[in-house]
Specification:
NAD(P)H-dependent oxidoreductase subunit E, Thioredoxin-like_sf, 2 helices
Length: 105
């Protein structure tokens, strides 16, 4: 019998900062996006065991596609421009279970 996952969705925001001038998520608003997602999930009552966890991450090695966020257990990768895109990922993917094709990478 398989155990139920601890979280329904585990979301990782890359916050990596590169020193050598290569593209990085930290230079593209990743911190603000992650904090927004965490707050919004709490406001919606979706945080905690069996629900959604929003985490910071180091380099996810897709900086050129960034900023990036990955949603597990699906393993769906997204990019975003602003908090409106983050809200769409939350509303469509995390709440309704629908992939946001226009932001998928």
């Amino acid at each position: 019998m398989a155990d139920k996952p601890y979280y329904k969705h585990h979301v990782f925001f890359c916050l990596n900062q590169r020193d050598e001038g290569r593209p990085c998520c930290a230079d593209r608003g990743a911190q603000i996006a992650q904090e927004h997602a965490k707050s919004r999930i709490k406001e919606l009552g979706l945080s905690g065991q069996g629900k959604v966890r929003i985490n910071k991450s180091g380099c996810l090695d897709r900086c050129e596609d960034g900023p990036v966020v990955v949603v597990y257990p699906e393993g769906t990768w997204y990019t975003y421009v602003d908090t409106h895109d983050i809200d769409e990922i939350i509303d469509e993917h995390l709440v309704k279970g629908k992939i946001v094709e226009r932001l998928k990478i």
